[in-house]
Amino acid sequence: MQPGSILCVTLGGDATQVLEPLIARGWDVTQAGDLVAAGRIQAHRHFKVGVLIVGASLNVPEAAVEACVNASPGSEWVTLCETEALEHPGFRELVLGCFFDHRVMPIDLGELEMTLQHADQRALLRLRHDAAHRHAVDALGMVGQGPAITRLRQQIRKVAATDAPVLIGGESGSGKELAARAIHQCSQRSAGPFVAVNCGAISPNLIQSELFGHERGAFTGASSERRGLIEAANGGTIFLDEIGDLPVELQTNLLRFLQEKTISRVGAVRNLHVDVRVVAASHVDLAEAVAVGQFRDDLFYRLNVLSIEVAPLRRRMEDVPILAEYFFQRCAAKSRARVKGFSRQAVAAMLAHAWPGNVRELFNRVQRAVVMTDRRLIGPNDLGLAPADNPVGMGLDVARTVAERDAIVLTLTRVGRNITHAARELGVSRMTLYRLMDKHSIALDSEVRPHVTQPWPTPQPNLRTAPAASTANPLETMLGTPVPGFHADWTGAGKPSGRA
């Protein structure tokens, strides 16, 4: 390996016995006599490796050294010090938290060169990792590289090319507002305002005034006229989040606005024309809400011109490490914590978690871990997750079985436990689906959950696991009489073991 470039900061001790041999062996050494000079050099040039030379004691505050080390992201630092310096607790903590390695004087030049080469390779690996991470975050602000997020990006660019209403579906915390902002950003209205409204967070008594505005004297307390949120979004996009919570009586006014592009303020005698694109979202199935009379069918069809679905995090687990790293970088930039990343056990625990709170839950757990951890690498306990049962991996046959069962469970949940719809979505016949449900001990009247590690119980749809063991013959149970010549052992997930 060819010698590289290093920044050497001398805060004490004899630097000549180290620097001259390094220069003689071809290392490009830039010297700084104090932290101020080091800061000026770092502002104009990036070094993959830095060396801090300290005498018997550190004569500057530890915080100043830490700021110098962190001023060059992606660099790896090595400190050379006297044995006495390591007797100070503050300096030991600084070395453990901020430096790639340390060497005690007098220095063995061969060992030092090997350490510098390892630091150089680690810095290069970090640069490649950061470059791949930046590539995973696109111009839309959406993080991930899996099939689900790739398909979502494609759908967003398609629907952004028109002005038709868009209905976004997805669970709470999955990123519906981010998708709405991406649609606005990709559209011809990107220069206009983007107004987000949480329909479930506004009082029913005020929501009409909030959306459509009011005239002066329209009601008690209306001392002046006020523009509504729809009018404020003129020339841009209004995002109606949780539109399923909109009162039925107000849905008529919204329907008129979608049809005629006009609104009427509360207390007004004339209509106002507005040029606004509507993007709506709901975590509930609006088609079911229409069926039970909680949502107007004509409004649903008017909104559901273009529809996209934001996948829950459990269906894009390949993006969990990328999202966690992205959130870690954001949180670490705002914190003085010395944490450097996630341990392998933490990554395994995140991949084993079901993420009922989706991306929002992941961000909250990473943010808490960055603040609360005392270690250099975040572990499962820092994230509030149970360690994975097998962080190393599982056999291929087991992985297939787990994936097959999870696919059936999630599909049944999504279609409301309708066998016909589930079989059609899975691409199998109804009899095959019944056989697979029997194989995995899945019953329609029981609660089933994906094969994931969860640290605490999480509410799930009304499905329960079938009884673990039953010696009753289901045919005899159905007929009410014994069936001669046949005996089945139903202790193994309901599969007969043979005939008598």
From TrEMBL:
<dbReference type="InterPro" id="IPR058031">
    <property type="entry name" value="AAA_lid_NorR"/>
</dbReference>
<dbReference type="Pfam" id="PF20161">
    <property type="entry name" value="VpsR"/>
</dbReference>
<dbReference type="Pfam" id="PF25601">
    <property type="entry name" value="AAA_lid_14"/>
</dbReference>
<feature type="domain" description="Sigma-54 factor interaction">
    <location>
        <begin position="142"/>
        <end position="371"/>
    </location>
</feature>
<dbReference type="Pfam" id="PF02954">
    <property type="entry name" value="HTH_8"/>
</dbReference>
<dbReference type="InterPro" id="IPR045343">
    <property type="entry name" value="VpsR"/>
</dbReference>
<dbReference type="InterPro" id="IPR027417">
    <property type="entry name" value="P-loop_NTPase"/>
</dbReference>
<dbReference type="InterPro" id="IPR009057">
    <property type="entry name" value="Homeodomain-like_sf"/>
</dbReference>
<dbReference type="Pfam" id="PF00158">
    <property type="entry name" value="Sigma54_activat"/>
</dbReference>
<keyword id="KW-0547">Nucleotide-binding</keyword>
<keyword id="KW-0238">DNA-binding</keyword>
<keyword id="KW-0067">ATP-binding</keyword>
<feature type="region of interest" description="Disordered">
    <location>
        <begin position="481"/>
        <end position="500"/>
    </location>
</feature>
<dbReference type="InterPro" id="IPR002197">
    <property type="entry name" value="HTH_Fis"/>
</dbReference>
<keyword id="KW-0804">Transcription</keyword>
<dbReference type="InterPro" id="IPR003593">
    <property type="entry name" value="AAA+_ATPase"/>
</dbReference>
<dbReference type="InterPro" id="IPR002078">
    <property type="entry name" value="Sigma_54_int"/>
</dbReference>
<dbReference type="InterPro" id="IPR025944">
    <property type="entry name" value="Sigma_54_int_dom_CS"/>
</dbReference>
<dbReference type="InterPro" id="IPR025943">
    <property type="entry name" value="Sigma_54_int_dom_ATP-bd_2"/>
</dbReference>
<protein>
    <submittedName>
        <fullName>Sigma 54-interacting transcriptional regulator</fullName>
    </submittedName>
</protein>
<keyword id="KW-0805">Transcription regulation</keyword>
